[in-house]
């Protein structure tokens, strides 16, 4: 497994990437799924106290973009500029994505370095001139092997007819790299995850690799081949290199050394081979260190098919955030679908989880505790006066939840499992309150009764303090509200500075903290039809 970074100066950052998205259309749920996952992963590592770098961006060259721009009567560059500024970047900020950089493949910091990289491979004899013909899917921007096609001529991903392409191209000697790649997978068993993805890659490489056509001469929307500018560089070679150019490859050695290689490349399973086969081979050819992990997430499905704009099933994330809110959106897909597997989205399932897990289990807990501290102690958090076994059980439950969540989310990218561990603790605290019934204890005004009431409410508030820390990577706006309502900041500092590894240390919230009944964390859902 890739080393998880450290704060020591000179150590390289925990570097995570998303695929760079084609800007032929606006983003849909499938794109946002990976980007939110990367955001949660990187926020988690930031809260481990690590140096982190989170990269996303857009893939702007190739035939698909060119055709879309043509159809809309604008130049490809105009089209990309418009989509990036009006659709992609605003969506990421709407979804609270805290990326450190956003790379566009039409930027000179990228195009110039790509040319140098390809020139270098050419000079090393890794690239030669040759001819190729075969079925090509413009949706995938990929030659297909005839055996992969459905009904003779349909792309298995897009279910649309492939085109026959015949070209004089430049080729990368990918076929030479099979044995070295297999050796690498063998010695790095966690390089491709999950296991199903690893098996697919092993099987593919064991069959033997063909050389890869890396240039196109039938259109010009791409980066020119430096020694033969009638050709443009194949969009996938151009695109993969974003992970290097964005962190200073060939231009800022200090930044590159402090960041490279990526610890995790998040990808959809349809683009696994590019990342787990072609990309490491390109890096081997150039002598660069290889990434730590390629993690392939599954597809969001609609009606049994991959959700996609080309299939007219692409749903805009805003249709859901308008109804459920941004944090619930971030929560839902990671909680409901095991990362790495396909999953279907359903409005009913989302509503059910919103109501039972977010509004009832979590939101109500926060508002009940704040209301009781207000009512019985004038909003000043009381002391943990007389803790007993029931309180110890809560502290133990927290320790277990925090450890499990840290391993599952931070190391294994098992977001569903990690979030479930935190919510098991939320349920435990609810159960504790039901058993202890502080509203009954409040009727006992003796010193012992007051001490018992103080203990129960302290325990519940301190549990919420830890829950805010642990859920902050998933639901930052909600947890910020909770942090404010617990009056934690003046004593403990900003929420984002709280360490996940320290979350379970009991007794951090001091007596006297000003607890206020803040906004409702998860308001009742409106009827979507009204
Ligand atoms: N531009 C390339 C990636 C280059 S990375 C060097 C590309 N772009 S894409 O916009 O078509 O897709 C980007 C990502 O979105 C892929 O990982 C793809 O799997 C993902 N998704 C697109 N539709 C999806 C779903 N319905 N569900 C989950 N992810 C899906 O490929």
Automatic annotation (TrEMBL):
Residues 382-527 form the Methionyl-tRNA synthetase anticodon-binding domain. Residues 143-369 form the Methionyl/Leucyl tRNA synthetase domain. A motif ('KMSKS' region) lies at residues 306-310. It is found in: Cytoplasm. It comes from the Bacteria. GO terms for molecular function: methionine-tRNA ligase activity. A motif ('HIGH' region) lies at residues 21-31. Is required not only for elongation of protein synthesis but also for the initiation of all mRNA translation through initiator tRNA(fMet) aminoacylation. The gene is metG. Residues 15-131 form the tRNA synthetases class I catalytic domain. It comes from Sphaerimonospora cavernae. Keywords: Aminoacyl-tRNA synthetase, ATP-binding, Cytoplasm, Ligase, Metal-binding, Nucleotide-binding, Protein biosynthesis, Zinc. CDD domains: Anticodon_Ia_Met, MetRS_core. Zn(2+) binds at residues 137, 140, 155, 158. Its EC number is 6.1.1.10. Monomer. This is Methionine--tRNA ligase. InterPro entries: Anticodon_Met, Met-tRNA_synth_2, Methionyl/Leucyl_tRNA_Synth, MetRS_core, Rossmann-like_a/b/a_fold, tRNA-synt_1_cat_dom, tRNAsynth_Ia_anticodon-bd. Binds 1 zinc ion per subunit. Its cofactor is Zn(2+). Belongs to the class-I aminoacyl-tRNA synthetase family. MetG type 2A subfamily. It catalyses: tRNA(Met) + L-methionine + ATP = L-methionyl-tRNA(Met) + AMP + diphosphate. Pfam families: Anticodon_3, tRNA-synt_1e, tRNA-synt_1g.
